[in-house]
Structure formats: structure tokens, C-alpha cells
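hi!! sorry for the late reply, been swamped w classes. u asked for the two structures so here they r. pasted raw, havent cleaned anything up. first the sequence of the first protein and right below it the C-alpha cells
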Amino acid sequence: MKKVIALLLLMVVTTTHPLQAAEEPFEAGVHYRELSRTLLWGDSDKVEVVEFFWYGCPHCYQFEPTLSAWLADNGETVNFVRVPGTNNRYNPLWDLHAQAYFVSQSLGVSDKTHGVLFHALHNPESKKRLASREEIKDVFISQGVDADAFDQAWNAFLVKTNLNRAEQLGEAYGVGGVPAMAVAGKYVVDSRVPKGFSQMMEVVDFLVKRELNRRSTAE
């Protein structure tokens, strides 16, 4: 009888362990970091997915095609938010470029200017630094934005407010580098995952599904 019981216990262990591994392919502390409290940028019924980025970051530029492909498949499922990095004491361009993003958002032209700003900085033929308001303004004008509208948006209260919010959220998340992703205000995924950009989005997928399952169970 003891041998039978031991055999049954062995069968339970060997059949349940692979299932557990399949359910948890990614590990906290290795593939993502879990926050002690929930921090959200917006208010939506969908799961929030945030990208922290900087236009001057070559890794963010390289990450864009991977992120765009993921959004093409998942953009309707989640509430996707871009949050530019700010307040880098070593490089004042972070704040300048963050302001450019929030100006584009306030003018409703971020779909036009987002890729163009990246390209202006990282295309070898461009050789732009976007190190001044006037340089950034020229990019916006090239995309059909009225010069006066740009000037008004640049100094707008909403843009300044969003800059402050971006700084606070980045600090609260403990974002030490970009690109980085946040899911449901609870989890942070950065490019230090073992297998790079493609795995970043696999981890984001996993965490989005986890949050959706949690919500459906709670209903």
C-alpha cells in the first residue's frame, strides 16, 4: 500500500509541475518588477499599457518597430499611453523632447510627428539634435502644423501639467532607463529582460492577460 501511495504522489508531482511552468513562463524579479501600489496615467476600463521613452534614445528608436507591430495586434484591447522620460540631470534634452511630445499630443498630431522626431534624430542623413525649441518647431511645421498654434501649445498649461505628471510617474515607477513598459499600473518591464525587445512584449502580453483574467474572476 505504501508503494501505491508513493507512486500516486509521484504521478501528481510530475503531471502538475509542467502545467505550473506553462502558466507562469515569466518570473517576477527576472522578467518584470511588481510595484507595491497601483500607479496609473489615465482612467480607462481597459488595461493600461505605458511606454516610457526618450526621442534621443537609440534603443527606443530600435524598439519602435517591435512596439508598433504589437500595437497593430493589441491596440484595441489595451489603453496604450506614451510617457516621455523627463528630468535627466545629465541631459536637459530629455525635458525639451518630452515637451515636444506633449505639444504634439495637445495639437492632435502625435501620429504624424512621433516617427518624424525619432527619424530626425537617428537618421544618419538628418544629423539633427533637436536641441532647441526652434529646431523642434521646424519639424512640426514640416508636418503641416501652424507656427502660431505650435507657439501657443508650447507654453500651454496642459503641456506643463503633463510634464510634471510624467516626471512624477517615472519616479514613482522607479524607471531607471528607457525603453520601459508598465502594465496595469502594477508591473514594470524593461529592456534588461534576458532576450531583448521581442521578449519585452511577450512579457507585456503575459501581464495583460493576467490582469484580464484577474478582472474576469473578480466579476
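now the second protein. again sequence first, C-alpha cells right under
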Amino acid sequence: MSSPHNEIEVKLAMANPAAARKKLARLKAKAVRHDIAPKDGRVHELNILFDTPDGGFARHGQLLRLRIESPSGSGKKRAQRVVLTYKGPAERPTIGRYKVRQENEVVVASAEAMQTILEALGLRGWFRYEKFRTTYAIPASARWAAGLVLDLDETPIGTYLELEGPAPAIDRAARELGSAPSDYITKDYLMLHVENSRRRGIAVPQLAPGIVTRIPDMVFPS
């Protein structure tokens, strides 16, 4: 279980995964390999947001997420990793152009058991989204990047690079990637999905304060 800490992050929109990897090469960043993705570090994520029927979490700017990580390739049966994450309200005012909020998470043994517990407590899943994520790390010799994590996210609505860590490291990495503070995105994937749907003329429920409406899933075409 992780101790509570302040998450400082931004997203950068990328043209596509190949373009993002080319930019990451400028930083000599390498994919982080682990048990789920020992070859290339790329994992599939299924994320489910939970809330009370009256939207109590959303009303207070809180988030409760169940994430299931699995190998990115089809037909692979290696172990999954299941993480329950709580995020507190974004700080106001935020530090500069970054999203800053408290985060705490714990690895759980079973997604099914955890979902059963949450539902027994009266919570319900109201938004589900998928993505492929590859985490990158900059070599330790670049001391300025200490504590910086770069996550390459391939989503149904586009490719994003998420930078999390100390604000000075975020700024320097973004600059070397060819981005400026004006390019920083602090919206979560739910809001990006809603905005993308509206641009495409797809009807989505209104996100009224204090009301949680079932939002259409953001998933890859089957």
C-alpha cells in the first residue's frame, strides 16, 4: 500500500505512438519492463470509476478507481495486477499549470472480489475506459529527472504522454520533448472523452455537479 502523496502531473498530446517514442528517444528514456510486460513494458489497462448513487465523490472532486493491468498481447495468460486508487480533490489554486492532488493506492488480490465489496457498500461503476500504457524512465545519470515518470498512453481518443514528478523536471522534460507550458493538459481521461464525443457530435450525458450519470465507455473497438 502506498502512503498518501501529492501527485503532480500533466499530459501532452502526441500525434501517434511512434512519434511519441521518437521524442522519448531524445531523452534517452527506456521502457520499464516488469512481470506483466517483461519484453516491452506495454500493458493493457481496464479502468472503472466508482461513485455513490448521488455522485458524492464527484461532487467533492474525489476519484475512486479500480484498475486491472494485463499483458498487451492477445491470448497471453500471465498474471494480472489489480490496483485500487483514491485521488483527492485537485488543489486550488494549483501549482502553475500542473494538476496537483493527493493520491493513495493499494494492490489487491482480485478485481472481482474488490468490485463485489465496493458494490456491497453501495458504490457503482459509472465510467469504464481502456488504454495501453508503457512507462518510461530517464537514466539515473540525468539527475535533473530524479522522481520523474513518463507514461505513454494509447487510448481510443488519441495518444498522450503523461509526465508525473517534480515540477522543474516536468518542465525540462516537456521542453526537451518540444512542448511548452501552453501545451500542458490537466484534464482527466473522462473529460477528454466527453470533449472528444462532443466534437464528433456524439451525445453524452451532462456532467451536472453532484449527479453521476452513466457515461458511455471509452474502449477500443472490438
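hope this helps!! also noticed smth abt the second:
The two ends are 34 Å apart (CA to CA).
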